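Bit of a strange request maybe. I'm writing a small parser for structure token strings and I need a real example to test against, not something I typed by hand. Could someone generate the tokens for this chain?
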Amino acid sequence: MYLEYWKNILNYKGVAKLSHLVINILINIFILFLIMISGIFVPFKWENIVVDIYYFILCVMFLPTISMIVRVINNYRLKSKN
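Reply from user aminoacidic:
Good idea to test on real output. This should exercise your parser:
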């Protein structure tokens, strides 16, 4: 399911379940949390690199999250029409 989340990064016409959105957001939070925790264990010189990686991944995760939110909205629009 998480791989499908990344494969559908530009799919704004499909549909998705709200539960899939919540699970993918929780996985993203977990990944970001692991990166933050890794900042504790790296040498002091590397902390800025870890922060840069954190922000880069955060920005990259933004696009598939937005597209999945649009697909969830599409799902509810289709349900309300029927």
